Structures are given as C-alpha cells and as structure tokens.
Inverse folding.
C-alpha cells in the first residue's frame, strides 16, 4: 500500500539502510551524550583521565557505535539486536563506576538503552527484565567489591533500576499506543483509497451515462458556476453561443424573435431556485436557431438548503417542425371541409322548411342527415379552433351567474336523457371581466364532458365563487374518472383516456385543449383532480381583471 503520510527523517533513514541503520540510529543519542561527557568532564575534573574504568567505558561506546555501523544485522537472528542495549549497560557501568565519586549521576545514562528496549518491541518480557537488571548491576557493582550494605544504600541501589523499569513500561505503553494509532491511520488510509477508487469509478460511470444521452445536462451552483456538463451540452455551447456573448447561451421565446430578458432566461431562473419543465425556447441566432425544451430542478443539501440546480436541454426542432406540418395539414383539410358542410346544411334547411310535402320517412331521414351534418360541423369547428395559431378574445364585464344558469338549462335535456342530475351552486350575481362567448364555450365543454363520462348516471355539480383577486368555477362529476398520469396529458390535442376508449364513448380529444387555450387567454388556469371510478373535478381560476392577460391565446 503506498504511503499516505510523510515519514519522519529517522524512519526514512531506517528504511533506506535497513537493520544496520536502525541499530545506528538507536545508538546515536547515547554516543552523542557520552562524547559530550568525555569532552567536557575532564575539563572540570582532570582526575577523570586517571580512571581506567572511565576511559574504558568511553572507548567502548565509540567502538560499539562504529561496530554497529558495519555489522550485517540483517544476516543475524532478529534477537541479536538485544546485544546492543546489553553492551550499552556494560559500557555505562564502566563509565559510572570509574567516576562514581566525581560524577555519580552517570548512571542516568541507562535510560538510553532502556528506551531502546521499549522502542524496539523485541521480546517484551526479556526486554523488561533487562531494563531492571542492567541498571541494577550498574549500581550494585561497587557494593559487590566492598561487601558493605546499609538500608539507605539498598534504597539507592533499587531506585535507579526501579525508575528504569517504570520508564520501560511507560515507553512500552506509549509505543503500543503509537503503533495502534499507526495501524488505525493505515486502515483509514486504505479506506480513503478504496473510497477514492469507488468515487472515481462512479464519476466515470456518470460521465459515460451523461455522454450517452442525447440531451444537454448542466449543473450549476447558487452563483451560476458550472459544476457538471455533458458532451451534448458542450455541443450546444459550441453551436449556439455567440462570439459577443462568450459562453452564454442566447434564447428566444419564439423563432426569429428578440432574445429573452434575463429574468426569463432558463439558467437565470435555475439560479433563482425555480423548478420548471417543458419550457419551449429557441436557441442560437436567427440563422441557425434550434427549438429546445428546457427543464430545471433545484438541488438541496441534507439541511434542505438550496445548493444549485440541474438544467436539461432537449433539442426538439424536428418534433416542432413535424407538429407544424401536422397543424398546417389539419387546418387546410378542415377549411376544405367547412365550405361543403355549410352548403349541405343550408340546402337541408331549405328542403326541410320548404312548402314541398315530404313523406314522414323522407323527413325523418333528412332530419338524421342534418343532425349528423351538424355534428360534423361542430367537429370541423373544433379542429379549426385547435389548429388556429391564435384565439381572439373580446373581454368585457360579464355576469357569470346568468351565463352559467343559461348553460345549465341548455344541458339539462342531455343530462336527463343520460340519467344525470345537474346541481347548481352558483350565487345570484357574479361579475367578471371575460369574453362571454368563449366562457360559454368553456362551460359547455366541461358540462358536456361531465355528462358524457358519467355513463352510470349520478350528479354533475357546477360551482362558482369569488375569491381574493380571482373567480373560481368548478365542474364535478361522479363518473369513470382517470389516472393521475392521464390528468397530466388530457390537455393535449387528440388525447383520450384509456377508460373513455374502452367504454366506446365518442369524441376526438379536442375539447379540453380548446378549453385550456381559452382559460389561459383570459390569464387564468385550469386544473384537474381525478381518480379511476371516483369522478373528476375541473377547477377554472380567472383573474378579476384581464389587463395583464394577452389579447390572444396560443
């Protein structure tokens, strides 16, 4: 395992020179101390030079240090290293007992081999015994020569070896703690390496996934700085960024229009923490604009604080072109249907209202033809409304309560034939600024759907009330209902729920698309709450004023 932390100089020296370097490094402090004593003590007391034991001890230290540098310790048994502290005890004993009257404190040098024994970790029991016996023999050696012992002398004799043994035990415990810490550091270093490898692998996997998808992905922080991007987004940057704007993407609300204001720019909205989806914009300059569907979701930390956003850019140019071609086709075909249908209805009316006597069977057949022609005319009208690029609104003060009551009366016959009871929860007066013709169309569509999709009868309730700064209309039924996924799709053109198709309920799926366009043209919203078998509730919310609403709805 590679090293994760810098090593001390002594450890690097040991690793470079092996056991020989280790022996020399452990011996060096004692040799330096002895050399200092040998150089300074005779200057203070020249009589030391007359002590053969002192001189022999000094020379033995120097010889030992030189020998430790040349002995091939790696070729010897590991326990052979214990010879180092044993010989040190002998050399210290010679020095101490050779100058016992002048420098009695030389016995303290025994601390060096004791520390060596504790730090080496070799044969702990034997090392502990040597830590006591070595200093004991150093102190007791003169007493063995004169054979005199007193209580105070015995205490002095045991003091140094006891302190040496205590020092050994302390160093041993400290060494074990250091070793445990070192093992813990190595374990944590291994965990860090494993985590780094795992994170690196996940990063490579994420990069491969992001570069595989055909949508641009951009992650930014709260300041708008780029955190992550993929290959497709880099292509967007290369093809859509203008030289004068640098790396900033230029978006327009529609093809060929001026750039979006900064507040509506998708990246600016993402920096502000907004969440949006299916936001259709045009990317790039006029000569090479692409239709892009943008979406953004905010990112939060475990504390729920906003930390940035992920923005997705999906190139839908081909889809937009295909939809445009389809809408043009539907519009053209519908216009072609409209003229002959008008002629058919007109001539049928002339025949039915003429003074010519018709047999009952003929009149009934012509009535059936007229009824189906009217149905086809309504379908053509819906197609024209759905294909129209704009819907003209003529808003004015409108008494909605009367409008709703009139629409309920018109739908009552249809409801009674279907076994449905219409319930009105409308106030006596309810004024709004709206287009009465278009709002009547909204109510007719919602009531018609509520009756149509309640094949087993039940109640259809229409409610209206004034709220703060808005007016709310509700149409609730107890019909077949739909799933949550379907409620997100019902406003699309030609969409029909599975339950409607399975029940063979007639329709082409344009009514709600037109209804949504009218409501949004008034600056309002429409939402749907439904569940299978539990009915459906549509809620239309209109502002009290349409001054901020567009003049037409797309």
């Amino acid at each position: 395992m590679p090293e994760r932390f810098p090593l001390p100089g002594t450890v690097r020296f040991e690793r470079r020179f092996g056991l020989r370097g280790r022996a020399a490094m452990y011996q060096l402090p004692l040799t330096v101390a002895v050399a200092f004593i040998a150089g300074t003590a005779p200057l203070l007391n020249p009589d030391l030079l007359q002590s053969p034991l002192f001189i022999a001890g000094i020379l033995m230290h120097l010889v030992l240090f030189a020998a430790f540098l040349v002995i091939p310790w790696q070729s010897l048994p590991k326990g052979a290293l214990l010879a180092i502290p044993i010989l040190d005890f002998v050399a210290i004993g010679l020095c101490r007992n050779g100058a016992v009257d002048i420098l009695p404190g030389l016995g303290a040098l025994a601390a060096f081999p004791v520390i060596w024994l504790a730090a080496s970790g070799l044969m702990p029991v034997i090392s502990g015994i040597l830590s006591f016996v070595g200093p004991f023999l150093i102190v007791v050696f003169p007493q063995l020569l004169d054979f005199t012992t007193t209580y105070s002398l015995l205490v002095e004799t045991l003091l140094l070896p006891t302190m040496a043994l205590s020092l050994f035990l302390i160093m041993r415990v400290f060494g074990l703690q250091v070793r445990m810490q070192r093992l813990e550091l190595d374990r944590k270093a291994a965990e860090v390496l494993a985590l780094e490898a795992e994170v690196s692998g996940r990063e490579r996997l994420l990069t491969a996934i992001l570069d595989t998808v055909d949508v641009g992905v951009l992650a930014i922080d709260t300041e708008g700085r780029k955190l992550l991007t993929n290959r497709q987004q880099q292509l967007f940057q290369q093809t859509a960024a203008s030289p004068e704007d640098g790396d900033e993407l230029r978006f327009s609300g529609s093809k060929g229009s001026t750039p979006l204001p900064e507040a509506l720019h998708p990246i600016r909205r993402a920096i502000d923490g907004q969440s949006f989806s299916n936001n259709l914009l045009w990317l790039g300059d006029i000569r090479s604009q692409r239709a892009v569907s943008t979406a953004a979701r905010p990112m939060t930390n475990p504390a729920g604080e906003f930390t940035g956003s992920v923005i997705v850019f999906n190139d839908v140019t081909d889809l937009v072109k295909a939809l445009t071609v389809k809408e043009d086709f539907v519009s053209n075909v519908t216009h072609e249907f409209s003229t002959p249908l008008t002629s058919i209805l007109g001539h049928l009316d002339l025949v039915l209202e003429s003074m010519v006597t018709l047999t009952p069977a003929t009149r009934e057949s012509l009535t059936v033809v007229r009824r189906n022609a009217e149905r086809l005319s309504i379908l053509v009208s819906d197609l024209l409304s759905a294909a129209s690029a704009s819907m003209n609104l003529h808003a004015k003060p409108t008494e909605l309560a009367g409008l709703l009551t009139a629409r309920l009366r018109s739908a009552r016959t249809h409801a009674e034939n279907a076994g449905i009871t219409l319930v009105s929860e409308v106030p006596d007066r309810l004024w709004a600024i709206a287009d009465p013709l278009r709002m009547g169309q909204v109510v007719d569509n919602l009531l018609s759907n509520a009756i149509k999709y309640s094949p087993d009868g039940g109640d259809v309730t229409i409610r209206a009330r004034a709220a703060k700064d808005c007016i709310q209309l509700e149409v609730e039924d107890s019909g077949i209902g739909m799933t949550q996924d379907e409620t997100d799709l019902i406003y699309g053109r030609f969409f029909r729920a599975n339950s409607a198709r399975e029940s063979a309920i007639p329709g082409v799926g344009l009514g709600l698309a037109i209804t949504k366009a009218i409501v949004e043209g008034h600056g309002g919203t429409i939402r749907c709450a439904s569940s299978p078998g539990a009915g459906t509730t549509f809620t239309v919310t209109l502002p009290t004023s349409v001054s901020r609403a567009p003049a037409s709805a797309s």
User: Anything to note?
Assistant: Residues 1-10, 546-554 have pLDDT under 50 and may be disordered.
